[in-house]
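Justification of resources, computational component.

The compute hours requested in this renewal are based largely on the per-chain cost of generating structure records like the one below. Each record pairs the submitted sequence with a full structure-token output. That output is archived, and it is also reused by downstream analysis tasks.
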Amino acid sequence: MILYYTIFLISYILCIFDFVESRLGKLCVYLAFCTFITLIVGLREVGIDNDSEAYQDMFDFYRTSTVMQIIEGGYGYVEKGYVFLNKIISLAGGNHRILFLFVAIFTALLNYIFFWKKSSYVFLSILFYLSFFYLYRDFTQIRYGLSAAICMWAISLFLSKKYFQSLLIILVAISFHNAALILLLAVFIAKIFKNQLWYILIPIPCYFIGKLLTLQLVFSLLGYNADHMSIYLKDESAGSASISMVGYCICLLYYFLMNYKARFIDLNSITIETGNYYYKLVSIAVAMNFLFINISIFQRFSFIMFQFCSILIAMTIELMANRIRERYLFILYYFLIASFLLFYGVRMINEDLVRPYIFSFL
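The structure output for this chain reads:
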């Protein structure tokens, strides 16, 4: 398991480069580290994570499927985009290992280019991403991870008022995992509730309502047989509570920095408008996690929005930099947050999620 600890520790140490002035130097270090962690995912052996054996079986099934069978769908077939990706790779002579490598590289390109372009503290953003999502998505739920990465660019296009392109990108994301549908609801909610204060208040009642909900109750209301859905009942937990609190604290901090003695802030700037929207998405994710705090499967929907914390936390750091005149206090504040992210990421390393690392091509 030492490799996983090493990755998190290196990411923490590299946060020093957020204070290096040379952008070229930062880029070289960033590229090297991103390449390293991408190949670690793409070259892993089947069985290290919980889902890779199932994905291998799916690949063997899809490679023998006809195009008409894929279009018609049915038992064993997941979202069409992912199924066709399997089919195309098999037709090109690839196997499941090539599939894993391709998904790892494409997911990484979408994520890490996004961080580089959007984050003022890119190494803190990547540390946040690794701590919350790397073992959970990149290793395990690969089609969901790819869909989530596509979603970030869909929102970016939406904020640039490229609505048609944004809709097309969301449809692509949905073709890999239908959890991406939640973005359409999130955009609608953000349109209805424009006041920032709403997004501080809404999670509170959601928490108390969520304490009363159980997966059995939800299934019964939807008309599902709980026995048939027993696989999800076993996964029921309150594990989203700590994640929700982290997201809520970031939202509180951002709201405070935006509204307390903030006369220097240009509220019409693109950066602030983007930050305000990410703030809303993260708050919606927190509210969803609180609402379904006893139903961990719903994290697949809320994490689509929660991932924008990786940029929002960098924006709070940037806002804080304008408030703290003493440079050493600001750096101390920065590394306190980075230390927490390191602590959280290290706690994710356990054999219930990933096993000791083995290269697949050795």
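The chain has 19 helices and no strands. The chain has a mean pLDDT of 85.
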